[in-house]
Design goal:
Number of strands: 2
Strand order of the largest sheet: 1-2
Shape: globular
GO molecular function: DNA binding; RNA polymerase binding
Structural class: mainly alpha
Number of domains: 2
GO biological process, one term: regulation of DNA-templated transcription elongation
Protein name: Transcription elongation factor GreA/GreB N-terminal domain-containing protein
InterPro entries: Tscrpt_elong_fac_GreA/B_fam (IPR023459), Tscrpt_elong_fac_GreA/B_N (IPR022691), Tscrpt_elong_fac_GreA/B_N_sf (IPR036805)
Strand content: under 5%
Largest sheet: 2 strands, parallel
Radius of gyration: 20 Å
Pfam families: GreA_GreB_N
């Protein structure tokens, strides 16, 4: 439905709805599961629930990812290399999964998609196929170290300060009563969606950014890092 597609594009669906989409990926929710926003929605829904201390700790989406061995492979099968690597980094970084559960999910990814093995083992392959190297280079965002640091600081502020503060606001707003007529609750939830979207955008930028001081810029022609 339009509601599902809009929710996926805005990363605003709750974990129960996202869990239903995943469970019905070969049935009623085929189109929604094929939406490009599904992977970010999964991580976003899990992290919002993880940070919300007022909700029960039983999470169907969390359990589904752990128990359904084919879910992540199905999720990534039509993704390109950059998208698969980005999702792998999100799994590595998220506090939602710990210990054996996180290792199990990463193992499933690398088994089906060996191209992320270096992310998981920490080993860098010295040789890459020319086509892959060019593709990765073309998708990189070349920025100054200052700009990269600024993005990282903004991300840390969102994760360590703004999201926890927003979670507290949601918890307090719940105590005001009827959620349908609760302006404070609606405003806090809208702010939550904004923060999670900003977090996802910054993570995507940082994951593809390549920092430089432009000392090796080619000054013989106009290019990145030259002044005319």
């Amino acid at each position: 439905s339009d509601h599902l597609m809009t929710g996926l594009s805005q990363r605003s669906l709750g974990f129960e709805v996202v869990a239903w989409i995943c469970k019905e990926r070969e049935g009623l929710a085929t189109d929604a599961f094929a939406n490009k926003g599904i992977s970010a929605s999964i991580i976003g829904a899990l992290e919002r629930d993880h940070l919300d201390e007022t909700t029960p700790k039983t999470n169907r989406l969390h359990d589904l990812l752990i128990d359904d061995a084919e879910l992540i492979p199905d999720l990534l099968v039509d993704c390109d290399k950059a998208e698969i690597r980005h999702f792998t980094r999100r799994i590595q970084a998220t506090p939602v999964f710990e210990g054996l559960n996180k290792n199990s999910l990463l193992a499933r990814i690398v088994k089906r998609f060996p191209l992320v093995e270096d992310l998981i083992t920490g080993e860098k392959k010295e040789k890459k196929e020319g086509k892959d190297a060019e593709q990765e280079k073309s998708t990189s965002l070349i920025v100054s170290w200052e700009s990269l640091q600024d993005r990282q600081e903004k991300l840390e502020d969102i994760i360590n300060k703004k999201i926890p503060e927003n979670s507290k606001e949601i918890g307090i707003a719940r105590e005001y009563g009827d959620l349908k007529e609760n302006f404070e609750f609606k405003a806090a939830k809208q702010q939550q969606a904004v923060l999670m979207r900003q977090k996802a955008e910054l993570e995507a930028e940082i994951s593809t950014a390549r920092g430089t001081d432009f000392s090796d810029a080619n000054t013989s022609s106009v290019s990145i890092g030259t002044i005319v």
